[in-house]
Amino acid sequence: MNYLLRIFTYCIFTLNCATSWADYSNHPDAVKFVDTMVTEHQFDRQQMFDWLASAEHQKSIVAAMSRPAEKSKAWHEYRKIFVTDTRVSRGQTFWLENIDTLERAEKEFGVDPAIIVSIIGVETNYGRNVGSYNVIDALSTLAFDYYTEIEKRESRQKFFTTQLEHLFLLAREQGKDPLTLKGSYAGAMGWGQFMPNSYRNYAVDYDGDQFADIWTNPVDAIGSVANYFTKHGWKEGQPVATKAYIEEGKTIDAKELNKMKRPTKTIADLAAQGYIPAAQFAADLPAFPIRLDAKYGHEYWLGLHNFYVIGRYNPRTKYAMAVFQLSQSIRSKLCKADNIC
DSSP for 205-250? Predict the structure, then answer.
């Protein structure tokens, strides 16, 4: 089928309904995508069309993207998903089973092992839930349909189209069939839930077998998460966050809350605005204020630079706080039970 016929087919569909593509090889954006893959990366054109013909639109992916837990749940509800006795206990077990690798990663990358363990716990419950979607379905749906079904979102379309490009490159580099790769509804893969570009850029072969495998290899997953954090600016030995209280009589600016951006104000600046940190840190440490919906009111925190770095994994305040609090709980349990503090 030539390009003009594909465009005509697309137009006929869109005159009648919001298109849900059962065969993405016919989508006009997919045609342009194939041209890019052939021209820039020397993929076989017919092979690309065959792969995209196997990709299926998934309504459940669009629905899940439209109501992420970070937006739909209050903090006290969100926290109960991730900071649980079971996940803490499994984190303790995972740490002890991989203690040599975690110690090596801390020494080589400077990243707190509690954060590495917590990320893997939050993302996949220590490899128990790495996702059941075909990644090609997820990324095709989000690259070619999501922005039209929800609203015009060129930036999201560009992001997921780039991820689809990296998926095919990753599959070629690792000798895998792209139709067989499984992941989350957003296209994230493996124990650490890396998007395809992150997999290619940050996954490392940490056990020396000449293959960076974060799908099934916890050693590579640990090294890859540590590498990801250090490449995104993790500062060794620096704190992550502290609870805070509001000085009596002070009115805070709600517009400044929960901005997951690199902090520019300092603890001293925020103290002058009425935030009283519960922990004593250097007054010149960069920080930003956080307010979370607890069950019976608000909690206030100050997120520091490393809290922001956790947010490079997922730029949501609730997500970064869940990772931080789970890491604290795991470390506390290990300290009491196994004298690893």
Answer: --SSSS---TTT-HHHHHHHHHHHHHHTT--TT---EEEEEEPTT-
Nearest alpha carbon to residue 260 among 297, 301, 315, 219: 315
Structure tokens at 73: 């749940």
CATH fold of 3-66+134-183: Helicase, Ruva Protein; domain 3 (1.10.8)
Q: Return the amino acid letter for 105.
A: A
CA–CA separation, 92 and 83 (whole Å): 13
Q: What is the pLDDT of residues 138-184, one digit of tens each?
A: 999 999 987 655 555 556 889 999 999 999 999 999 999 999 999 99
Query: pTM for this one?
Result: 0.90
In angstroms, the CA 222 to CA 37 distance is 32
How do the domains of the chain map onto residue ranges? 3-66+134-183
Would residue 56 show up in a list of annotated catalytic residues for this protein? no
Q: Residue 84: left if φ>0, alpha if ψ -120 to 50, beta else—which one? A: beta
Looking at 40, 103, 106, 123, which residue is catalytic?
123
